[in-house]
Amino acid sequence: MSTIVHFLERAGVVRDGRVIEPELYAVFSRCLERNLKCGLSHHTLSALWSDAQEKRPTVPYPLKVALGVSARVEEVNVASARWYASRKLDGIRCLIFVGGDDAAVAVSRTGRQLAGAAGVTRSVAGDLCASPPFAALASRDRLVIDGELCVIEEHGDGTFMEDYNATASAAKSKRVSDDLVYFPFDLLTYTEFCDWMHGTRLFSERAAVLDKAVAWCLEHRPDTPLRRLPQQRLRSAGELVSLHAHALEQGWEGLMLRRDEPYEARRSSAIRKIKEWQDAEYVVQDIECRTMSLMVDGVIVEEHALSNIIISHKGNRVSVGSGFTSAQRLHYAAHPDQLIGRMVTVTYFEESTSQLGGHL
């Protein structure tokens, strides 16, 4: 009997004498009630959890991850707790489960394996496992890295723009992509991830280890697909307002705020998404082109390119210039017919109403 209980506990069906996965428990019970004879001896059950098995990068089912809630800047009381802010990336959420011998598997937040990310997954796991901060943690348990997969266009001045469509295509492709980079923002042990209700390290503690590991990789593994995602400690409401203004100016997807608390694998107000941009579809009425400085094959060149498109918003002629890669700007300047008259999705700042009743 103790062997069966141990088996159910290791399978995540039972915890502390309580059934936490009733559906799986019911299936197991039905198998026993049918008096099936399949050789479930102590040796067989024990073999399922050999040292080699325990070191495999196992994805728990069902997969439960930390999720945030949408918020506006004025709704966040920075003085009420210790908050950390980072750029909200327009990519695909990706969790990398790392086992022994640098073995790793990447899945989306719903548990779907990302075949196209196999290459970046192997590189990330290998690079991080070579770093002393990560290796010290990995010596005690399997690890779970939470982050964002992106295809980015770097501008040469330290800034970059994400290409979500390219990211989705690369990550979900059956072919391994070399275009993906990975921005990790959290690092947990497998025990913390699965048994988070029993307590974990604070976010600041987890982020500190991760930041040191990523910094080591960027210094010693220059070809790593890892990218650093700075976590800025907010000390006042003014800092949040300034950072939010910077995000808008740079055209970021938004901001992510994380309260310095233990990990919670559920939707929680401890994570706030500040994204005041709205999406809408428009027909391209016209385009405008001019000579622009663009990054092409790692070199800044002056080229005749698409500068902006013209759409009609509530009867007004509106110019939209952001959101295009250098390649797209060159292509559409040469082939305007492929853009004019087509439907596009435009992301714009949320409208507000002035004291006079108009829209700002």
Automatic annotation (TrEMBL):
<dbReference type="InterPro" id="IPR029319">
    <property type="entry name" value="DNA_ligase_OB"/>
</dbReference>
<dbReference type="InterPro" id="IPR012340">
    <property type="entry name" value="NA-bd_OB-fold"/>
</dbReference>
<dbReference type="Pfam" id="PF14743">
    <property type="entry name" value="DNA_ligase_OB_2"/>
</dbReference>
<dbReference type="Pfam" id="PF01068">
    <property type="entry name" value="DNA_ligase_A_M"/>
</dbReference>
<dbReference type="GO" id="GO:0005524">
    <property type="term" value="F:ATP binding"/>
</dbReference>
<dbReference type="GO" id="GO:0006310">
    <property type="term" value="P:DNA recombination"/>
</dbReference>
<protein>
    <recommendedName>
        <fullName>DNA ligase</fullName>
    </recommendedName>
</protein>
<dbReference type="GO" id="GO:0006260">
    <property type="term" value="P:DNA replication"/>
</dbReference>
<keyword id="KW-0234">DNA repair</keyword>
<dbReference type="GO" id="GO:0003910">
    <property type="term" value="F:DNA ligase (ATP) activity"/>
</dbReference>
<keyword id="KW-0235">DNA replication</keyword>
<feature type="domain" description="DNA ligase OB-like">
    <location>
        <begin position="306"/>
        <end position="354"/>
    </location>
</feature>
<keyword id="KW-0436">Ligase</keyword>
<feature type="domain" description="ATP-dependent DNA ligase family profile">
    <location>
        <begin position="79"/>
        <end position="275"/>
    </location>
</feature>
<keyword id="KW-0227">DNA damage</keyword>
<dbReference type="InterPro" id="IPR012310">
    <property type="entry name" value="DNA_ligase_ATP-dep_cent"/>
</dbReference>
<dbReference type="InterPro" id="IPR050326">
    <property type="entry name" value="NAD_dep_DNA_ligaseB"/>
</dbReference>
<dbReference type="GO" id="GO:0006281">
    <property type="term" value="P:DNA repair"/>
</dbReference>
